[in-house]
Design brief:
alpha/beta; Aspartate Aminotransferase, domain 1; 2 domains; four-stranded mixed sheet; 13 helices; 15 strands; binds ligand PLZ
Length: 452
């Protein structure tokens, strides 16, 4: 799947534990951290990172862990991907910052051109660049309101869109994202998501859309809706893949109602799900698309891309920011996108699905605690429940995730109920490494979860 192993100067692609986890140097850093870093900022792993490359993360004690997290779906192209490193080196030596609003440069323009080409739909598009996913989402709301002269934004149960004040209002889950941080922005309305595992059995995507649309029409009013904002596959909410037909029905309703369909592709974008963007799986063409994470191979960059007439409804100077589209991040993005194209990383994501999904389904057959296996491409998850029910088991999910860490496999959890174990391997991960990680997962489940 990758030739990283043979590239000089990269990290050995292996799982290797040489100390207990966390080792002595990680423990020392943890104690320094306790005296310096705000306790509100948490970390999933107990180890501190020294290097990372391809599909592994190496800690300060020399332990090498298999990465099934990609820094939350960011290092799709691999950690410290050689092409990205070279591009960043060249740019950082040329100039680090001018502020695009002061002294513009080609990299920003070129990233926007790429985004306009790659995002779904062949209509005329424009893009603007920002620093974080939350900032891109905030700007999507600003543009949607300005372009439609309407104010209501529709969001969904289990949605995650960020942690800033406006995006906290858009995000569904209270703990840890919102609790005590209000008051929140107004004119945000939440409707039910299509969640096949938890909806009435047999509910179609069209029926789930009708349920949401009925609430929008009766409680908000179609004429007040500026935009319907949705993750085509929910990320933090638990890798919820809506029933087929749900997204197209919502996009259709938007078109008929004069509302904008806004796809938050921040977690699903950049080949993660086996296509450049997850909207493509159902042929949905959003009016606005937010991107971040995978776009720049680990450097902070985010974007809003949309119909030219929608984007350009905003007055000049209406969008911007000091660092938005930083030249180093743009250079990284151009190298990342080029690498994704040249190495067909969308195909790599589909190959990861072909390896992982059957193994996860086989695991589900053996244990009574996996209620659902789902996802697309290299965005896959299992939802853990008490045997024979759909009752979430967050405690077991955490225990299993931690046991994977202790065995040198980086896993993440997600979900409104904290009971989803999710897998987001770098798309360049080697087949052997992926298989080894799945073997570890099997062993951890065998130890911690009752067999059927
Ligand atoms: N929209 C769909 O997944 C970020 C958040 C982790 P930022 N998801 C990871 C955490 O606990 O903070 C995300 C996302 C979707 C927006 C965002 C926000 O992106 O770059 O974290 O601001």
């Amino acid at each position: 799947m990758t030739d990283l192993l043979t590239e000089p100067g990269t990290v050995a692609q292996e799982r290797r534990l040489v100390t207990e986890l966390p080792g002595p140097r990680s423990r020392e850093l943890a104690s320094r951290r306790a005296g310096a870093v705000a306790s509100a900022v948490g970390s999933t792993l107990p180890i501190y990172v020294e290097r990372a490359g391809g599909g592994v993360v190496v800690d300060v004690d020399g332990n090498s862990l298999i990465d099934l997290g990609s820094g939350i779906a960011v290092t799709n192209v691999g950690n410290a991907a050689p092409e990205v490193v070279d591009a960043v080196r060249a740019q950082v030596a040329a100039f680090t910052h001018t502020c695009f609003m002061v002294g513009p440069y080609e990299g920003y323009v070129a990233v926007c051109e790429e985004l306009n080409r790659l995002t779904p739909g062949d209509h005329e598009k424009r893009s603007a660049l920002f620093n974080s996913g939350a900032e891109a989402v905030e700007n999507a709301v600003k543009v949607a309101r300005q372009a439609t002269k309407r104010s209501a934004i529709i969001v969904f149960d289990h949605a995650y869109h960020g942690r800033t004040n406006l995006t906290m209002a858009l995000t569904a889950k209270n703990m840890p994202y919102k609790n005590g941080f209000g008051p929140f922005a107004s004119e945000i309305y939440r409707v039910p998501m299509s969640y096949p595992f938890r909806d009435e059995p047999g509910m179609t995507g069209e029926q789930a859309a009708a349920r949401a649309i009925s609430l929008i029409e009766t409680q908000v009013g179609a004429a007040n809706v500026a935009g319907v904002l949705i993750e085509p596959i929910q990320g933090e909410g638990g890798f919820v893949v809506p029933a087929p037909g749900f997204l197209p029905a919502l996009a259709d309703w938007c078109r008929r109602s004069g509302a904008l369909f806004i796809a938050d592709e921040i977690q699903t974008g950049f080949c993660r799900t086996g296509q450049w963007f997850a909207s493509e799986h159902e042929g949905v063409v959003p009016d606005l698309v937010t991107t971040a994470k995978g776009i720049a191979g680990g450097l902070p960059l985010a974007a809003l891309t949309g119909r030219a007439e929608v984007m350009d409804a905003v007055h000049t100077g209406g969008l911007g920011g000091t660092y938005g589209g930083n030249p180093v991040a743009c250079a990284a993005a151009l190298a990342t996108i080029r690498t994704m194209r040249e190495r067909d990383l969308a195909g790599a994501a589909r190959a990861i699905e072909a390896t992982m999904l059957p193994r996860l389904k086989a695991l589900q057959e053996r244990t009574a605690v996996i209620g659902d296996v789902r996802g697309r491409g290299a965005m896959l998850a299992v939802e853990l429940v008490r045997p024979g029910t759909t009752e979430p088991d967050a405690e077991l999910t955490n225990r299993i995730s931690k046991a994977c860490h202790a065995q040198g496999v980086i896993t993440l959890t997600a979900g409104t109920f904290g009971n989803v174990l999710r897998f987001l391997p770098p798309l360049v991960i080697g087949q052997d490494l992926l298989t080894e990680a799945l073997d570890v997962l099997d062993a951890v489940f065998a130890e911690h979860a009752p067999a059927r």
